[in-house]
Amino acid sequence: MNNNLSTQFSDLIASAKDFIPLLLEEASETDAPNLFPEKSLLAIKDSDFLTACITSDFGGRNLGLQAGSNSALLEILQLIGSGNLVLGRVLEGHFNAQLLINQFATSEQKERFSKDAFEGRLFGVWNTQADDGVFIQDQNETYVLHGSKTFATGTGYVARPIVTATDNDGSWQMCIVPLDQVTAIVDDKWWNPMGMRATRSYKMNFNNIVIAKDNLLGNAGNYYQQPSFSGGSVRFSAVQLGGAEMIFKETVNYLKNLKRTEDQFQKMRIGEMAILIASGNQWINSAAVYLDNYMSESSSENANLFLNQTNMVRTAIDEICTKIMSLCQKCIGARGLNKPFHFERIIRDLNTYLRQPAPDYMLMEVGRFAFDNANSENEH
Fold first, then answer.
1. Which pLDDT does position 1 carry in this prediction?
2. Residue ranges of the Acyl-CoA dehydrogenase/oxidase C-terminal domain (predicted)?
């Protein structure tokens, strides 16, 4: 982290660390599709996390908005993810929404939505859809939404989701939908997953939802603007690594309690897990550095370097988490996968959360970048 900013977010990082026992306990209590970690969310709301990514012009902390702040943002997400991947995903969605607002909103919108966040309203980004996806119609300065979103994380708790909708020419328009002022139809039957159950990522039907023009965010097509769109994967990668880190810590404690620390094979597995976590931390730190560089100088070269790094980070963290889960299960055996141990739930949650779109494409892009940027002397 930039030394000038190294202490600016220390209170948020300390709060995230302090929350971990609460997060871990409530994660077990709310492992169901119709529940939600309400106590953990309340703690988050009481500790400035909902307003941290708002510009200081409107009372926020500029977290993730300036070079040197990205290391702290990723560390916070990693810490929250270590306690509860569900809340890590929810907070990452809120951060994502705040960053999009800062990037594309008008000054009036920034002020209005900052006030919403300071009043405790949770934001999110709902982009995923099936064949009945959301489209938008212009009706004389008001806009009407039709269609549905799937994986609407935080349903019932997110009050200001950024909903993407296709317009007449097929472009995607971001809309901030005030869910406390309109009536969307919730389909909770759609959500019955292996893991991440308490994210309440239901299906939401927005048929005939009317929104004002000043609830449109940016211009059509802005949502997919690079490098911010693909680069955002570093945030969920940080959350995922937090889950893997908790698996590692719990595995060490489990073996210590069983007095299995002198077993040579267990030492080897724990050693490998320790190396994997250290490697993951270096990958996450590298993402912060490349993002800081892009923020300091937003050149096309720095954008491409950052995008390539995020593709590598996402791929590496996926592999690290997968290997951590495999080694953990070898260490603890069938006995450790019983409750009240946390392993079974965290492994289900992490396995589900790792299922992000287009992993093969990201790896292919890393290879393409390597070919395109190979030293000409090595091409012969």
1. 41
2. 220-352
